Amino acid sequence: MPELPEAETIGNALRRILIGRRIVKVEVFSPKMREPVAPLLTAGLEGLRITGVVRRARYVSLTLSDGRAILMHFGMSGVVRVEDASVPKRKHEHVFLHLDDGKIFRFECTRRFSLLKVTSGDLPELSGLGVEPLTDGFDGRYLYHALQRSKSKLKLCLMNNAIVAGVGNIYANESLFAAGLRPDRVANTVSEAECERLCRCVKSILRRAIEAGGSSISDFLNVDGSEGKFARELQIYGRAGAKCPVCGATVERCRLGGRSSFFCPKCQK
DNA sequence: CTTTCAGCCTGACGGC
DNA sequence: TGCCGTCAGGCTGAAA
What we know:
Layout: H1 4-18, E1 23-28, E2 50-56, E3 59-64, E4 68-73, E5 78-84, E6 93-99, E7 103-109, E8 115-120, H2 140-148, H3 154-158, H4 169-179, H5 192-211, E9 252-256, E10 259-263
Antiparallel strand pairs: 1-6, 2-3, 3-4, 4-8, 5-7, 6-7, 9-10
Helix pairs in contact: 1-5, 2-5, 4-5
The structure holds a DNA duplex.
């Protein structure tokens, strides 16, 4: 499912493909995803040029020549393709943007958790997001101060977009394992040194995942249909009952905030 | 204020 | 064979 590295991978591909293209026609096949998509039909997109592609957290936005933007979120099953018009429509493709080079930008989402909407260029929907994890603003001191204010569980804070934006379930699990911290640690018991270590692990894992083109767990595909290669590098996610790759202890699973969490009871404190 | 949790949606899978 | 329950999961908004 697309998290930050997958959104980055999609954004990078779309930047190469879409910038300079003009939208000539819009087709909508489904009434709604996370929000209704019918407004795309009456938004006056025809004739506009795509002038930029921006990723923020797990969102990707296409900047338009009239100052507005098309904001996308991939939910957990969103797939974007840019293909020739001769390719038949797939079952769960919901929106087509026909381009001036004859290709079609296609948005597919099996589970319809995705978002695709026209909004103003300053992206007000994203104003509540916290710091980007791959910027200098995300460091041990910042995370420590955020955690000090919370009695919630550490993993839930790491996945809280108001604190740090774009770290989802897979990479939260992997980062906590790499940092040797239990996902169910109470946030305000984590030391500044541990925060420093965790920040470094988050950055390192996200960067490696971006280099690998993301993780293809269940539904994620890159714009060209290829799978991300990071899935095979996952150390802890999905490995309940297996041996810890570091110490050999049995990996445990628990639920936090309704989501599966995996950890090594020996390596993670 | 903070924290938790149901609901959205489809398909895969296991048990009977 | 098919039916039912469970799981996957980001995000929202309501409840506690």
